Amino acid sequence: MAEPSTQENGPDVRVERDGGIAIVTIDRPRALNALSPEVLSTILGTFEALAAEGSDVRGVLLTGAGGRAFVAGADIRAMAQFTPEQAEETARLGHRVAAAIEGLAAPVIACVDGFALGGGLELALACDFIYATDASSFGQPEVHLGLIPGFGGTVRLPRAVGLARAKELIYTGRRIDTAEALAIGLVARSFADRESLFAGARATLDEVGANAAPAVGLAKRVLVDAAGRRTESATELEVAGFGDAFRTQDMREGVAAFVEKREPEFTGA
Ligand code: DAK
To answer: Residue whose CA is closest, atom 41 of ligand 1?
Structure first.
């Protein structure tokens, strides 16, 4: 197996590669990994580059450095002097980042160890699911600053926790701990510490990686695109994705292996 490699991908974002797994770390601990426009652009470029690698990427872990925060929000200092036009531009950039994460065929797990607030929680919500250490906390505190969520929180938080809980969290700006986040379905799984968090996330990627990669990618596409649509339109997406699965070699192999009572040998094609 190739040695793991680390790469600086621009200001304050690091990418480590270990075979097909990429660990993307927002590394700006002096500001609790707050998302400046530069950091957002770099995250966008990072996910676009991972998408360009195609099936060589089988999973991504997105995390924050420093042991105190995943991301403590959009960079409040950078934002203080924004004109409305700059605010809109930054919002679009945030949405492009979320779209790049959701558009990646491979699963992306947000590995939260510490604060996931405001734009940080919105970034985590754009990932496929959130794993977190017990010591983490979550919130949309924008109203404390006279703002509203601007990177998709009004859309993805209700999908994750239901409309009433999302409204409560957004209107109060209150922070919740991992136990509560787990109870309301915001966090998929919790871990005692950072080490077990990463071990658990990697084990999940290994479990997913044993399956037919095209099927996982198709399932992700339908799950992401169908969210929030009316039933008829959402199920049409599933129909198309189900049909597309029949265009893959892995589907033929998976079904043949079942019939022949043997383990499938998936190739990702
Ligand atoms: N931005 C910039 N710097 C931040 C930051 C942030 N979001 N959060 C923390 N920092 C910096 C602090 O200023 C401090 O820097 P120094 O003073 O040492 O230079 C350093 O990180 C350590 O923070 P604290 O000293 O405050 O540490 P504590 O342990 O006392 O408190 C805290 C930790 C996370 C509770 C606290 O830092 C905090 O409340 N931070 C702000 C959390 C927050 O309100 N986050 C939401 C931001 S609003 C938009 C789209 C989206 C958004 C906005 C616009 N567009 C459409 C334009 C999203 C908005 C948000 O995310």
So the answer is: 72
CATH number for domain 5-209, candidates 3.60.20.10, 3.90.226.10, 3.40.50.720, 3.40.50.150: 3.90.226.10
User: In this predicted model, which residue has the larger pLDDT, 239 or 1?
Assistant: 239
Instruction: Name the catalytic one among 122, 180, 236, 238.
Output: 122
263 a catalytic residue: no
Residue 3 confidence (pLDDT) above 90: no
Query: Which DSSP state fits 74?
Result: B
Report pTM.
Answer: 0.96
Cα of 77 vs centre of ligand 1, distance in Å, is 8
Burial class (CB in 10 A: 0-12, 13-18, 19+), 5: exposed
